[in-house]
Amino acid sequence: MKIPFEHIQAAHCENGVTVSLLRNIGVQKITEPLAFGIGSGLFFTYIPLLKVNKGPAFAFRTMPGLIFKRTCRALGITVRRKKFRRKGKAQAYLNECLDAGRAVGCQVGVYYLPYFPKEYRFHFNAHNLIVYGKDNGRYLVSDPIMENPTSMSDYELERVRFARGVLSPRGQLYYPVAGKPITDDLICRGIKNGITRNIRDMLHIPGPIAGVSGIRYTGRRIKKWRDSLGLKKAGLYLAQLVRMQEEIGTGGGGFRYIYAAFLQEAYGYYPDDVLMKISLSFTRSGDLWRTAAVQAAGIYKGRLGSQADFDQVGDYLLEIADLEQQSFAALSKIIWKV
Amino acid sequence: MKKEEVPQDPGSLGKVTKEVCYATDESGKYTTELSQGWEVKTGALDVAWQDIAERVAAAREKVSRREASPLLYFMELKLMDVGVLAGYTGFWKWQVRRHLRPGVFRRLSERKLRRYAEVFDVSVSDLNSLDTHEDPL
């Protein structure tokens, strides 16, 4: 069985899965930036106590799964989501969906993904891909990160669907069910709610670790890393920061660029000049993240290493925090008439 | 970032696929551009793998000094921590921690060893000889 399905490559897996699955049920208007913005994808958090691969844990986006959920909800589309205890049942249900002509999104771990280069295989369990059919005993897979669709055997797919560790997917699969027709009005309201929610996430979460205050906190911490951790470990921590920021497809604080693209597209639905203006400042903020990454690279590659170099990275982050705070404050001034 | 500035440095991902980047065109409008990779990213990844290689070597040392059971070596080699290993084997975390002690490991039953061997993709005898059948990192 093979469901007619158009593979779309995207900058980020969850955006890509959202866009592809929506296209598959006839929603053509949602592009990757729109999905990211309506789903309020932009975020920052640093959780000092949580360790990922023995380094600090950063996130540049919201919790996995939320972008899809929020975008669908904004458009009045129902989402079916299912987790499984038994591997057999998980596969049976997947086959049922495919028989019914439905492409489904799956949460998977990347460690055992056969088509990924070895260098990228970590125990990271929040990757998303789409299964859209079975041919010659192999599942047809559309991974939004890849340029072309691929395929996986039963065993390979089962292994990644039942990856273990933090955020283990437990065979989770999900698909949208078409609802009302999607009007521009609906998208416009989605944009408004998405931006409002993003303002809340970035500016108004109490405590020092989330949103712009999280960026500031990280900036201040980085300045202390050289003394508190030693040069080698501090370098490892910075490399971790850059890796989280530059995860595949989001190169250069790429989420900031996607958000800037979102604001431009939002302007098409709601012509308010503030959107265009703030789009520019998100481009600037993405550029700054890149500059910070280049400086950090100098440290972990051993080219730089003085306290002044660490201060420089920290200062870039403080500058970014100020810039993003201003941007979201400006966005919150928009008076929406929808 | 402007479209022309999208980095095109050869990296490990570039061999398999190119990634989508959002960048602006001449008129300032956002569009997508494919990127081969970025040297800064590749560098960060290299640092992470170097650290892993060092940890694997340290684990191997520890095992040969009998300060830890061979499980530690395989755990580091497969980038796992106790939680992940417990998840894949079905043991409790405290059991895995106990099995990391050489004395306890030596008395493990064949069945339990098989569970570990399966997760690490090796045979039971490889578990003791630290043979991975893989190219060194």
Give your account of this protein's structure.
The complex is a heterodimer of chains A (338) and B (137). Chain A has helices at residues 13-24, 32-38, 66-74, 87-99, 154-161, 184-203, 211-229, 231-245, 254-269, 273-300, 307-332, and strands spanning 42-52, 55-61, 78-82, 104-108, 127-135, 138-142, 150-153, 173-177. Chain A is an alpha+beta fold. The radius of gyration of chain A is 21 Å and the shape is globular. The N and C termini of chain A lie far apart (44 Å). Helices cover 52% and strands 9% of the residues of chain B. Chain B has helices spanning 39-64, 70-77, 82-89, 93-99, 102-106, 110-120, 124-129; strands at 19-24, 30-35. Chain B has a two-stranded antiparallel sheet with strand order 1-2. In chain B, strand 1 and strand 2 (30-35) form a beta hairpin. The radius of gyration of chain B is 21 Å and the shape is elongated.
